[in-house]
Design goal:
heterodimer; A: 266 residues; alpha/beta; Rossmann fold; three-stranded antiparallel beta sheet; 9 strands; B: 258 residues; two-stranded antiparallel ribbon; 15 helices; 71% helix; globular
């Protein structure tokens, strides 16, 4: 279970105008602006839930994921995941979670995928039988058979993303964070990834938290939606609730969300 | 330790993807250090000694510093390139793994091309030993080993400080090179040749002198105090404030982008 209460995090961001003179000026006097990435956020996610986490760019989605996965320490607020505080008991906590950052690879670039998998096995000290079982299952479901022996740098984006997801699941985590997992994928790969995530949730009751801009991902996968903007949770409800907010009837999900963004001025 | 070997394995396999590059970089590293060695040789062609230290003594001193530095660089290189690790999000990846952070940073970047520099340092060390008129005994052998080991730890500490500062600012850290590459260069000569103030700085602030100057006095017979030879052990305590700073940095970590 994930329990988040009144979580806040501010960043200091250096600002300067364009131009050479401004660049020189910034060398000796920097203007800082405080940005509230997370502003008093609270929510609870139960085991086995699939939650879509949406919001415009810079709304605080990634910051939330980073706090939940123990990367960032928040300024204030509480957060317990399966009874642990992520940034305080980092090592124990991360054994329970899997994280996929769509824009970043966790595989070693120059060696075959299987080598990365084996190193990850050793990092998490996954027992041999469990690793074999997980590997076989993942290879089959994500059809990685031909791919695992290829160096990562020679894979296409879709192939790589499937490997990334497999890599995040080798240690059977209870919670999976997916940060834009379908970004840049073609239709076939997208569908494969979605099917797999659905199956994972049904079979292993894995909690999935998904951030994405692709509303089709949301529609296909999640039953509950958290909408965040300017660091605040603006809506927490089901997909139907979201659809109910549309002004005219046959608006697409993208249009509804765009309209909500406008409505909340985010 | 077993896991570390696994990391080494994957680095070697990555490296072998670019065999020629590896070979040339290693040779390059060898030649660069060789250059410095030539510098000393030519210096002493003109002057017979520096502050009462002879040619062979300086050579000995430099080879020890170079050895310590090369070891530190080979194994702790991850900290030296830490700014880019934060910049490209690699550190996020490290944070989500259930292992010690320092361990992971160390093992994620192994600079095996530094083999060239280590070979150079070993060659020089052997040459210096054969040239030197040191009266070897058990204590002196231990002293040499302690100097190299202590030096490695202290350089590692400097690398960790450098990395910790990256948590607070990502630019303007060039000055730290004074203490890394700079220390290697001016470590050619026993530190007291640079004057009292530098010696004091290198004793109390960043304890370079504890593994270089003081034990070296004992090593080359300028002093008979065995205790001087044990000072590198004291110097390794330097790692404690370094790791403290590191921990402070972790809490300040802001990560980057999405």
């Amino acid at each position: 279970m994930i329990k988040v209460e009144k979580l806040s995090k501010t960043y200091q961001v250096a600002r300067r105008n364009s131009g050479f003179r401004e660049a020189i000026k910034s060398l000796y006097s920097k203007e800082y602006e405080e940005i509230k990435a997370l502003d008093c956020i609270s929510f609870t996610i139960l085991d086995g839930e699939m939650v879509g986490y949406i919001g415009p760019n810079g709304a605080g989605k990634s910051s939330t994921i980073k706090v939940l996965s123990g990367i960032l320490t928040p300024d204030s607020g509480e957060c317990t995941i399966n009874g642990r505080i992520p940034w305080k008991e980092r090592k124990a906590h991360v054994r329970d979670i899997g994280v996929v950052f769509g824009q970043r690879s966790q595989l070693w670039w120059d060696v075959p995928v299987i080598d990365s998998f084996e190193l990850i096995r050793d990092i998490y000290s996954v027992p041999k039988e469990m690793y074999q079982r997980n590997l076989e299952e993942l290879v089959e479901l994500l059809s990685l058979n031909q791919i695992v022996k290829t160096p990562v740098r020679q894979l296409s984006l879709g192939q790589r993303m499937r490997c990334e997801i497999a890599a995040a699941l080798l240690h059977s985590p209870k919670i999976l964070f997916l940060d834009e997992p379908t970004i840049g994928l073609d239709a076939v790969s997208k569908l494969a990834v979605r099917d797999f995530i659905l199956g994972l949730n049904q079979k292993h009751n894995t909690t999935v938290i998904l951030t994405t801009h692709d509303m089709q991902d949301i529609e296909a996968l999640t039953s509950r939606i958290l909408l965040i903007g300017k660091g605040k949770i603006l809506m927490d409800g089901s997909l139907d609730e979201l659809k109910g907010k549309s002004v005219h009837q046959d608006a697409s999900l993208d249009e509804i969300v765009a309209q909500l963004y406008k409505q909340f001025r985010i | 330790m077993k896991l570390y070997m696994k990391y080494v394995g994957i680095h070697i396999r990555s490296m072998m993807q670019y065999k020629i590059s590896f070979l040339f970089t290693s040779i390059g590293q060898f030649l660069v250090s060789f250059n410095v060695f030539l510098g000393i040789v030519f210096m002493f062609k003109r002057f017979s000694n520096v502050e009462s230290f002879t040619y062979s003594e300086c050579l000995m001193c430099f080879s020890i510093v170079l050895l310590a530095f090369s070891f530190a660089e080979c194994f702790f290189r991850g900290f030296d390139e830490f700014a880019s690790m934060i910049g490209n999000g690699e550190f996020d990846r490290i944070m989500i793994r259930p292992r010690g952070l320092i361990f992971q940073v160390i093992s994620s970047k192994l600079e095996l091309t530094r083999i060239g520099r280590i070979v150079q340092a070993i060659v020089m060390f052997c040459y210096a030993v054969s040239k030197s008129q040191i009266h070897w005994n058990l204590y002196r052998i231990i002293t040499v080993i302690l100097m190299i080991a202590g030096g490695t730890v202290i350089f590692a500490g400097v690398f960790i400080i450098y990395a910790s500062l990256c948590f607070f600012t990502l630019d303007g850290l060039e000055f730290m090179n004074v203490f890394t590459d700079g220390a290697r260069e001016y470590g050619k000569y026993p530190i007291n040749v640079y004057g009292k103030n530098v010696l004091r700085l290198c004793t109390y602030i960043i304890p370079f002198a504890l593994f270089q100057y003081y034990p070296f006095l004992y090593l080359c017979g300028k002093s008979n105090q065995v205790s001087l030879g044990m000072l590198p052990m004291l110097g390794t305590l330097f790692i404690i404030p370094c790791s403290g700073l590191w921990r402070l940095g972790i809490r300040h970590y802001q990560s980057t982008g999405s």
